[in-house]
Design brief:
The complex is a heterodimer of chains A (365) and B (335). Chain A has 365 residues and is α+β, with helices and mostly antiparallel strands. Chain A has helices spanning 43-51, 93-103, 108-121, 137-149, 167-183, 196-202, 220-225, 230-235; strands spanning 4-13, 17-27, 32-36, 58-63, 66-67, 78-81, 155-159, 188-192, 205-210, 213-218, 242-250, 255-259, 265-268, 280-285, 291-292, 300-309, 313-318, 329-333, 343-347, 354-357, 360-361. Chain A is elongated, with a radius of gyration of 25 Å. Chain B is mainly alpha-helical and 335 residues long. Chain B has helices at residues 3-33, 41-79, 95-101, 104-135, 141-149, 156-166, 179-186, 201-227, 231-239, 244-255, 257-272, 276-281, 291-301, 305-334, and strands at 81-83, 89-91. Chain B has a two-stranded antiparallel sheet. The chains are: A alpha+beta (365), B mainly alpha (335).
């Protein structure tokens, strides 16, 4: 039941250290927005500014049309789940969950009802009288989530909530959060993570943060299929998208690119204008979109330096053609024995080819 | 021989002797007693490693035994005996204790000690906690901390001398050099007071000196404990709607309660043994007597080692349970 609006929001420490600038973002009611980005990109800082734990240096932040810049955290109608759970170690699970309600002077009977209800949803009923130290990591994180739920906030904030859990528990808790979101379709959630699997699986929209600003906002598949720039193209998807240099040779509804190094020509389903003729660009192809070919037109030819057989697919690392660039990686379906040391020609279909000039995609012009 | 030279030789022999002890005893263990070779090499290494800690601890254990454990038993024996004229002593049972319990001065000392016990640890810990919390929040907090900690570096006697000047009294026609009297007269007092001779109040004036010294200690320990509190729990409490006072009393204090207990009991032990301040400021006159000074009076002034030892035993009996609790809590904190 809450819309968040950020207008030109900026954060700086002192006059010289800018962390974030020109953040413009609209978050609709009921969305689960995920902030992703490399470490140090300011995604946690942005979340803490929404929470009110960090001062907003510049710009305006609204919740439901109300200016929140100087509203204290407790009155913003938000609840936050921390990476380290941040449970009060001296309080039982019940006291942890009812602390905020007690401070709000809610009648004890209502507090008990709210806590019991949240505990039942999160399967914590048997643990209500335990101290946090007697709980496992997953249970602690559930208590932290329960502490948010009982307050019935307008906005839920999650700061890397799964980072402290082991791999198996992380998947289980991720699904629990997704189910929790489904059971509360009207609550708005903002979720920070550096794990793109979490971002792709949970988000209704993803915000990719880089270079002190927003690199792209979109649904998970938008970011995957039509990245706006090289950063997003390489950040989303694992292993990262391959970037290969080339030059535009044919323009129109489809664009043909002659790959550098006297390789073949490749076509992309991307519109270009006559002015683009001869433009130096980077061709982006995801490892999973590369297929082997014996045609004269191909995107890349190289010797297989190393291969990893994973059963369902084979991951191939080619020898670096250019020492300044990352090695090209291809993911081939199924099992390919004895490819190591062989020379392979790779290409991709026209709808899987991305074109970037100056770091920006030719799609967004 | 020149005394400086004697001192130097003593140091060389002492330090050299210590080094030599550790070196040669270790060599003896490894080379002669249990050499790590031959058919029983593994067995020998284990043996040597079992013995080594005791070997290295031996000098410390000997010194502690000689200077701490033995005197306890000797004091206990002396408290049951009486010095005979012309040398020697006689067993007198509990006579010393009954005589001591009959003395009003002893009960005055007991009462004062109880007062000290209630006031000083409480005030020191409270002020220390307050100072720790406040200095963590301001930019010049470290300077403030050093200033508050500084009295810790002053000996009790030195502190007593400083505070004696604060409580100093001059005739009315002269300038008051004692701050307390100066203030008293400034705010409308008629005559300069001799503060240290006003029974019951004077005890509190003495306690202030110890509070002044111990606050720094409490502050340093509690400040470290406060910094150890995870920042997220405080942020979570702020998001939960806690006001600063609620954050402090409901989130911070409960998380460092163990440390508070350790600080409290440590200061309690200091208080039970308080001697220097009373000795230097009033010497137990005007109803300010405390147990340690009472013991000193009996033992070294009246030369009555029976009674003096009896009062020493009383002090030890009072300190021991607190000491045990203190060590127990400190160990719990370490875990």
């Amino acid at each position: 039941m809450a819309e968040l609006k950020l207008i030109n929001v900026a954060k700086s420490y002192g006059p010289s250290i800018d962390v974030l600038k020109n953040i413009n973002l609209d978050i609709e009611t009921g969305e689960l927005i995920v902030f992703v980005g490399p470490s140090g990109c300011g995604k946690s800082t942005l979340l803490r500014m929404i929470a009110g734990l960090e001062k907003i240096t510049d710009g305006e932040f609204f919740i439901d049309g109300e200016l929140m810049n100087d509203v204290p955290p407790a009155q913003r109608g938000i609840a936050m789940v921390f990476q380290s759970y941040a449970l009060y170690p001296h309080m039982t699970v019940r006291d942890n969950m009812s602390f905020a309600l007690k401070l709000a002077k809610m009648p004890p009977a209502e507090i008990e009802a709210a806590v019991d209800k949240a505990a039942a949803t999160l399967q914590l009923t048997d643990y209500l009288d335990r101290l946090p130290k007697a709980l496992s990591g997953g249970q602690r994180q559930r208590v932290a989530i329960g502490r948010s739920i009982v307050r019935d906030p307008k906005v839920y904030l999650f700061d890397e909530p799964l980072s402290n859990l082991d791999a198996a528990l992380r998947v289980a808790t991720r699904i629990e959060i997704a189910q929790l979101k489904e059971s509360m379709p009207n609550s708005t959630m903002v979720y920070v993570t550096h794990d793109q699997v979490e971002a792709m699986t949970l988000a209704s929209r993803i915000v990719v943060l880089a270079n002190k600003g927003i690199a792209q906002v979109g649904t998970p598949l938008e970011l995957y299929e039509t990245p706006e720039n090289e950063f997003v193209a390489q950040f989303i998807g694992s292993p990262a998208m391959n970037l290969l240099p080339g030059k535009i040779t044919k323009t129109g509804a489809q664009t043909a690119v002659k790959m550098s190094g006297n390789r073949g020509e490749i076509t992309a389903n991307i519109k270009s204008t006559d002015a683009d003729q001869g433009l130096e660009i980077n061709v982006g192809i995801r490892p999973e979109d590369l297929v082997a070919t014996d045609q004269p037109d191909y995107a890349f030819e190289g010797k297989v330096d190393y291969s990893e057989a994973l059963g369902e697919l084979t991951q191939i690392y080619f020898t670096k053609a250019d020492p300044d660039r990352e090695p090209v990686i291809a993911k081939l379906q199924g099992i390919h024995r004895n490819v190591r040391g062989k020379s392979l020609r790779m290409t991709a279909t026209a709808d899987k080819v991305h074109l970037f000039h100056g770091g920006q995609s030719l799609l967004y012009r | 021989m020149h005394p400086a030279l004697q001192g130097l030789i003593t140091i060389v022999i002492g330090v050299g002797g210590c080094v030599a002890y550790y070196y040669f005893s270790n060599q003896f263990l490894d080379k002669v007693l249990y050499p790590p070779r031959g058919p029983r090499a593994g067995h020998n290494i284990n043996r040597a490693n079992l013995i080594r800690p005791w070997l290295f601890l031996f000098p410390a254990l000997l010194a502690l035994g000689l200077y701490l454990a033995y005197p306890v038993f000797e004091t206990l024996r002396m408290s049951f005996s009486e010095r005979l004229p012309g040398g020697g002593s006689a067993f007198v049972g509990l006579d010393n204790y009954s005589q001591m319990f009959a003395e009003p001065k002893f009960w005055e000392a007991m009462r004062n000690n109880m007062l000290w016990l209630i006031v000083v640890p409480g005030l020191s810990t409270a002020f220390g906690l307050l100072a720790a919390q406040l200095t963590d929040r301001i930019s010049w907090g470290n300077i403030a901390k050093s200033l508050i900690f500084m009295p810790m570096a002053i000996s009790f006697v030195g502190a007593a001398v400083i505070w004696k000047l604060v409580y100093d009294t001059r005739p009315i026609e002269q300038e008051q050099i004692g701050v307390l009297n100066a203030l008293y007269l400034y705010f409308g007092g008629s005559d300069p007071q001799t503060w240290l001779t006003l029974p019951i109040w004077n005890s509190f004036f003495l306690m202030i000196v110890l509070v002044w010294i111990q606050t720094g200690f409490a502050m340093v320990i509690l400040s470290a404990a406060l910094r150890g509190i995870p920042e997220e729990t405080i942020e979570a409490a702020i998001l939960d709607g806690a006001k600063p006072f609620q954050v402090f009393f409901k989130i911070k204090v409960p998380q460092i309660i163990g440390t508070i207990v350790v600080v409290w009991t440590t200061i309690t032990i200091v208080v039970l043994k308080v001697f220097d301040i009373v000795f230097a400021m009033t010497n137990g006159q005007w109803e300010t007597q405390v147990l340690a000074n009472y013991m000193y009076d009996k033992l070294f002034r009246a030369n009555d080692w029976g009674l003096g030892s009896a009062s020493a035993m009383v002090i030890m009996l009072l300190v021991t349970p607190i000491l045990i609790w203190n060590v127990y809590n400190a160990r719990k904190e370490m875990r």
